[in-house]
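Quick start: what a row looks like.
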Amino acid sequence: MHALVTGASSGIGREIARLLAKRGYDLILVSRREERLRQLKEEIETSCGVAVEVKPCDLSRIGNVRKLFEECSGYDIEVLINNAGFGKIGFFEDIEEEHELEMIATNVAAPYLLTKLFLDKMKRGYIMNVSSLAAFQPNPKMAVYGASKAFINSFSKAVGYELKRQKKPIYICTLCPGPVDTEFNDVAKGHFNVKAMSHGRCARIAVEGMFRKKRMVIPGFLMKLVYFASKLAPDAMRLPISYCIQDKKTRQQ
């Protein structure tokens, strides 16, 4: 059986790949950074004795997403991890249109299309779509990123319920982490103001939750409290709090 992991060159994706390899899955690793993928391939094949394929791919180009699926159509994919994504902090009017369209393509279009294409092929298995706690409230100064993760959350829950009603043995899990110690902040141009969870711990919680067929995984007790609080608070309260959080990230650079 094979598992395909996007965004596998670093952070949560890399740790999930290692964990799936330990469970005996042969891997297909996807990222733009080929050198890092090859280093991970060598490490995993040596330590776990599974086969690893490397697929360098820029998922912000829809043609590349279709090509990736075609190249993997001959594999028996049982696990699909849609982890690739990035964010950008700043006022909506100041962030370049090109960056935001690339973000929408990577965060929304790519996981949408990979889920659609592989669902048609999978007989059974698991799909994990990586969202964020940012999905549960408006995010001033990260407006497009938050909206992209809200799409992933809603989309995953809806399709997962359809599969349940159709009695198909395919389970969709949405991972909604809070701050995690990855390269996300370097790309987003901001810094967390609270202690971030290690990407290793986040990946372990995510993989365990996915195989337990949980629909949504929020790693960490504190982040679960934040989630429940965000559901109770009105937008008039959540908007200024969210704005202050993002504003502090950019001021600490």
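That is the whole record. Residues 31 and 239 are 34 Å apart (CA to CA). The domain at 2-251 is CATH 3.40.50.720 (Rossmann fold).
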